[in-house]
Amino acid sequence: YYDTAPFLGKISALIIANASKELIVRDPESFLNFKRFTKKVALDKDLAFFYELTNYEYKAEIEKVDNSTKKVIIGLRRFKNRKIEKLWKKIIKEIVEKNKKTKFILTIFEFKEMDQIGYKFIKDLERENKNVTAMEFNYNPLEMIYFLKKNAKNIKVICPQFHLSIASIITGTKFFPISYENKSKKLFEEYNIKYFEIDKITSKQVTKFLMEEKV
User: Fold this and answer.
1) Residue-wise over 136-165: b if at least 16 C-beta within 10 A, else e?
2) How much is the pTM?
């Protein structure tokens, strides 16, 4: 429950606070906001940190994407701020076109029906660049965590998604830390990770990340 939550989000938080016997939240901001409604709130971590993959029945669906060579996963995201979304797409296009020898997996991290514009964008890049594989994300999220854990040495992640940052941290995958909201900042600060603000990122900074132990 963040300060940036829309009106309906705040109403939902109030309802949840009154209906819950106990609330466990993942960050200080949510903790303080919920505490205004209830004393039955505790601070812990995001549930993703408690995933147990030992007994997970891995179906290897995501392995359909060829992972025989080192690759970079870049995630698209639908931002509320259209200016930022336009900037992020511009950076993705520049990165792909300026790093022809790097293999990229571009994904929208949701079904293509949910983001047809974003899916068309990555499919166009796939058609124009031989080093690009475009994919929709229609897998169990646990498969992505397992995939990263299994291929951590051969994968780099460049995604603004909050949970992809967490997945990268818990699997030891190298990633480019992008902050688009307060929850991202708090996550990176907790782990002493230097991060980049989404509206200030340049393709030069991302390319520098790619060149480090080049993928």
Assistant:
1) bbebeebbbbbbbebbeeebbbbbbbbbbb
2) 0.82
